[in-house]
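Example for tutorial group B:
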């Protein structure tokens, strides 16, 4: 018997206890300080109590290597089978232009093509997806730029798009800055809307200092009115707060605002935090950005001081929240990046891309759906084949089944190769998560 290569073992933040989890076997335990010490002694090659050793074998923290390899193979095949049945998210970009000039916009380096979406392109898009993804469960997410620009022409284009989505029986999500939601509400009623993602980066001036109109102008109040109206008529809202060091201190206030508004108790409301990060080009202000772990360390401390934040947003801390809420671990994550598997992106120029991180970047185009269909098979295959088994670093990493290899686009920006690593601080996140969810709740 050997110590499983999928064990993740460490001390819990703010506690003398330890945790051990194994995503392959599905075991997870909190160890007392004495047990933690014993496990450390075992790892140092010392003899330990027989009972404790038996316990480790029973829970599959100690395994027969060949048996473990078989289990890995079988769970990997299950993962692939399940993914083949999963719903596909199809992004469509009707324009890259935007009425906002956010301080951190990664699309500011794009030079939008001097053309507009036409009904011919929209028709070609629906023909392509209905043929290419025939028989697959799928839904459409309209993305930008800003898709809900308040002009008669844009409304006409979005109306046509929504009618086509209805004909294809597709539910639709929008990713919008939310400024013109009120002007679009009537139009959105014709569609089967699954969700509208709107961004608020804080309350009032905190938001307005980051997300303002081109040429200047506050946006907070108008977006809030739009969110209120969506929730009132039952259009699901997913509120996203993009966080960096400039607005993190506004998180407690943002949470309180959402609570006072009654949003957090509304069945049509959910929220997420997005980490502002260097997506496409080094942001000139990168010192204001959090690393993944420093963001969660800061949120952990804020929640201790302002527990009401949890009513607005519950951090995942890798698989900790899942384990706490479900009493069991999630299935092993052999691949965290859905690009070209269950996610694709398309734009109004007729180009096909892997996902929202690559859409609009000329050198990332994977082909075209208009004016004719073309595919760059080699590039597509690289995306399709990316998972933790396609990188030797991931395959030998004990975090692999919680990390899933991270984001293919971040990995490619770093190394030039899609099949490379975007490491997640899984152990450190679990240390925080066990502290936040298990120790603080006894
Ligand atoms: S490349 Fe990154 S952003 Fe794109 S689907 Fe994969 S994980 Fe998501
Ligand atoms: S990306 Fe890094 S942390 Fe994640 S599985 Fe691969 S090697 Fe491990």
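The residue assignment follows.
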């Amino acid at each position: 018997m050997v110590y499983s290569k999928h064990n993740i073992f460490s001390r819990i933040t703010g506690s003398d206890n330890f945790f051990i989890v194994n995503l392959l076997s599905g075991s997870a335990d909190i160890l007392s300080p004495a047990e933690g010490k014993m496990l450390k002694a075992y790892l140092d090659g010392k003899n330990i109590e027989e009972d404790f050793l038996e316990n480790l074998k029973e829970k599959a923290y100690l395994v027969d290597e060949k048996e473990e390899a078989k289990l890995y193979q079988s769970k990997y095949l299950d993962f692939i089978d399940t993914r083949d049945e999963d719903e596909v998210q199809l992004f469509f970009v009707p324009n890259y232009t935007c009425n906002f000039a956010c301080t951190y916009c990664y699309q500011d380096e794009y030079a939008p093509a001097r053309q507009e979406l036409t009904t011919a392109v929209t028709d070609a898009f629906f023909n392509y997806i209905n043929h290419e993804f025939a028989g697959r469960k799928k839904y459409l997410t309209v993305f930008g730029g800003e898709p809900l620009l308040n002009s008669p022409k844009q409304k006409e284009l979005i109306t046509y798009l929504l009618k086509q989505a209805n004909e294809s029986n597709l539910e639709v999500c929008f990713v919008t800055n939310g400024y013109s939601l009120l002007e679009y509400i009537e139009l959105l009623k014709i569609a089967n809307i699954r969700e509208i993602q709107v961004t608020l980066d804080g309350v009032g001036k905190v938001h307005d200092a980051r997300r303002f109109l081109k040429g200047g102008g506050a946006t907070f109040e108008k977006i809030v009115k739009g969110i209120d109206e969506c929730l009132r008529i039952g259009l699901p809202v997913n509120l996203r707060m993009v966080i960096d060091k400039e607005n993190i201190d506004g998180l407690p206030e943002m949470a309180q605002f959402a609570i006072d508004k009654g949003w957090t108790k509304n069945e049509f409301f959910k929220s997420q935090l997005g980490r502002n990060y260097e997506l496409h080009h080094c942001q000139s202000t990168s010192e204001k950005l959090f690393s993944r772990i420093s963001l969660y360390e800061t949120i952990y401390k804020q929640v201790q001081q302002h527990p009401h934040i949890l009513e607005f947003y519950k951090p995942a801390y890798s698989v900790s929240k899942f384990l706490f809420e479900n009493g069991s671990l999630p299935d092993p994550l052999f691949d965290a990046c859905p690009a070209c598997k269950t996610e694709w992106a398309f734009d109004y120029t007729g180009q096909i891309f892997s996902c929202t991180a690559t859409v609009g970047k000329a050198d990332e185009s994977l082909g075209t759906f208009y004016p004719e269909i073309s595919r760059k098979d080699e590039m597509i295959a690289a995306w399709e084949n990316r998972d933790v088994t396609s990188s030797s670093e991931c395959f030998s990493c004990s975090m692999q089944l919680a990390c899933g290899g991270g984001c293919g686009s971040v990995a490619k920006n770093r190394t030039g190769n899609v099949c490379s690593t975007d490491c997640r601080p899984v152990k450190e996140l679990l240390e925080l998560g066990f502290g936040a969810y298990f120790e603080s709740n006894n």
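The chain has 17 helices and 15 strands. Compare this with the pattern of hydrophobic and polar residues in the output above.
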